[in-house]
Design goal:
This protein is of the alpha/beta class and about 450 residues long. It has 3 domains: about 80 residues, Glutamate Dehydrogenase, Chain A, domain 3 (Orthogonal Bundle), CATH 1.10.285; about 130 residues, Rossmann fold (3-Layer(aba) Sandwich), CATH 3.40.50; about 160 residues, Rossmann fold (3-Layer(aba) Sandwich), CATH 3.40.50. Helix content is about 50%, strand content about 15%. It has 18 helices and 12 strands. Helix 6 links the parallel strand 3 and strand 4. Helix 9 packs across helix 10, helix 9 packs across helix 17 and helix 16 packs across helix 17. The longest helix has 25 residues. Bound molecules: NADPH dihydro-nicotinamide-adenine-dinucleotide phosphate. GO terms for molecular function: glutamate dehydrogenase (NADP+) activity. InterPro entries: Aminoacid_DH-like_N_sf, Glu/Leu/Phe/Val/Trp_DH, Glu/Leu/Phe/Val/Trp_DH_C, Glu/Leu/Phe/Val/Trp_DH_dimer, Glu/Leu/Phe/Val_DH_AS, Glu_DH, Glu_Leu_Phe_Val_DH, NAD(P)-bd_dom_sf.
């Protein structure tokens, strides 16, 4: 069978068995189509049914989570953990608490995580989990009770050598703290089963910064190869959560000016450059909205999402040299990519997971806009989680600079691995193909080595 038919047959299989999972299908389509050239030159993968095995999670756990809200009423949610692949190590990937969470989204995130983790060069498999719970507007006590209820089931399925969850959208240090406390109480173990912990009780310095910093380090390598840098460049960063804030921090350290950020209500344009201390205070301490930033900062303007043109995300109409989608999946459409291109954008670097739609990706690649794909560019977060696991296992902790240096080296290595693989297969400008092939090859080879399980 040709590699193309093998890929198409596998995608048909997904449509048949996961017919209501369009986001997972989108992600699988991207990966499988990219690895076709490898499958063409190496028939071993088809011989060992690697694709059919790889697109099916090793284990999917779905459970009920019940907690009591502040009014004394029982609230019920879905909890999930998708343990997709343990070919390279214990399942590793974040937990997302957001009302949009469902099995489709978590399968996409866990699938993406397999190849991202493979690219880090560390021994970690791929998983993801979460709940359709919205922490926004909840009291601390409600968040705590929810996290404890969630962990009362999840604790049965995780462990430092089996599955090590971390944070994602809606899960930061506060939620990790409550979940770690519950895990410890249930299991009587103080170990490295969760990452993203606070520094004073087993966390790693620079973990909080790692995804954002890592995305910028990766982009720096890409720009360097083209004789470009960040100095005096205008940047737009979507989102205003963990990834966005530390992307902005590193961009500013490297001399760039970030003029726009967003949240799910709209975006803020600040022509003088985002005041990061103010943004951190609003988002990390006060837990307010970007509209509150505009209200407090002279010259900043808030644009509500109700005013976005249909089919677009308003923030991408802001002219910039470099764009960093750092909010969520499918936040950058074909129209958005065209707007960015028209306004002279030279680089799109993905801090979020799968922020660009498939047609936007195609347009970006065809128009030779520099493209740093998520599974390579944002791998710094999970890599530093693995560094946290190493510190926990050795009962030690490294300084901020030590961790940052290791992260920087990991991102440079991921860039080389990605770009060398792209060149090996004749796709010099296509780091997406490079990342997918390099990530896939290592996992697929391990699956063959480990037999049919
Ligand atoms: P946070 O919860 O800290 O922040 C998410 C941000 O994105 C918030 O500002 C949120 O706004 C915004 N957002 C979420 N959904 C939408 C939407 N539909 N439209 C517009 N804005 C939206 O999450 P993180 O920063 O941790 O994660 C951001 C992305 O990065 C996700 O795709 C995640 O999977 C990915 N990622 C995260 C890693 C990490 O280490 N944290 C590692 C690798 C990838 P609002 O407050 O209004 O919801």
């Amino acid at each position: 069978m040709s590699a193309k038919s093998y890929v198409n047959d596998t995608l048909e299989l997904i449509k048949k068995y996961s017919s209501r999972q369009p986001i997972f299908l989108q992600c699988a389509t991207e990966v499988l189509k990219s690895v076709t050239p490898l499958l063409e030159v190496n028939k071993t993968y088809e011989k060992h049914s690697v694709l059919e095995r790889l697109v099916m999670p090793e284990r999917t756990i779905i459970f009920r989570v019940v907690y009591i809200d502040d009014k004394g009423k029982a609230q019920t949610h879905f909890g999930y953990r998708v343990q997709f692949s343990s070919a390279l190590g214990p399942y590793k990937g974040g937990l997302r608490f957001h009302p949009s969470v469902n099995l489709d989204i978590l399968k996409f995130l866990a699938f993406e995580q397999i190849f991202k983790n493979s690219l880090t060069g560390l021994y970690i498999g791929g998983g993801k989990g979460g709940a359709n719970f919205d922490p926004k507007g909840k009291s601390d006590a409600e968040i705590m009770r929810f996290c404890q209820a969630f962990m009362s089931e999840l604790s049965k399925h995780i462990g430092y050598s089996t599955d090590v969850p971390a944070g994602d959208i809606g899960v930061g240090a506060r939620e990790i703290g409550y979940m770690f406390g519950a895990y410890k109480k249930i299991t009587s173990k103080f170990d490295g089963t969760l990452t993203g912990k606070k520094i004073t009780w087993g966390g790693s310095l620079a973990r909080k910064e790692a995804t954002g910093y890592g995305t910028v380090y990766f982009s720096e390598e890409l720009l360097r190869e083209k004789g470009m840098d960040f100095h005096n460049r205008i940047c737009v960063v979507s989102g205003s959560g963990n990834v966005a804030i530390y992307t902005i921090e590193k961009l500013q350290q490297l001399g760039a000016k970030v003029v726009a950020v967003s949240d799910s209500d709209g975006y803020v344009y600040d022509k003088d450059g985002i005041d990061l201390a103010l943004l951190k205070d609003i988002k990390e301490n006060l837990r307010l909205r970007v509209s509150d930033y505009a209200a407090r900062k002279k010259g900043a303007v808030f644009v509500s999402k109700v005013n976005y043109e249909k089919g677009t995300n308003g923030i991408w109409s802001v002219p910039c040299d470099y764009a960093f989608p750092s909010a969520t999946q499918n936040e950058l459409s074909l129209e958005d990519a065209k707007n960015l291109h028209k306004n002279g954008c030279k680089l799109i670097a993905e801090g979020a997971n799968m922020p660009c739609t498939l047609d936007a990706q195609k347009y970006i690649l065809e128009n030779k806009i520099l493209y740093a794909p998520a599974k390579a560019a944002n791998a710094g977060g999970v890599a530093t989680s693995a560094l946290e696991m190493q510190q926990n296992a050795n009962m030690t902790s490294w300084t901020f600079d030590e961790v940052d240096e290791k992260l920087h080296k990991i991102m440079k290595d991921i860039y080389l691995r990605t770009s060398d693989t792209a060149k090996e297969f004749g796709f010099e400008h296509n780091l997406l193909a490079g990342a997918n092939i390099a990530g896939f090859r290592k996992v697929a080879d391990a699956m063959i080595d480990q037999g049919y399980i």
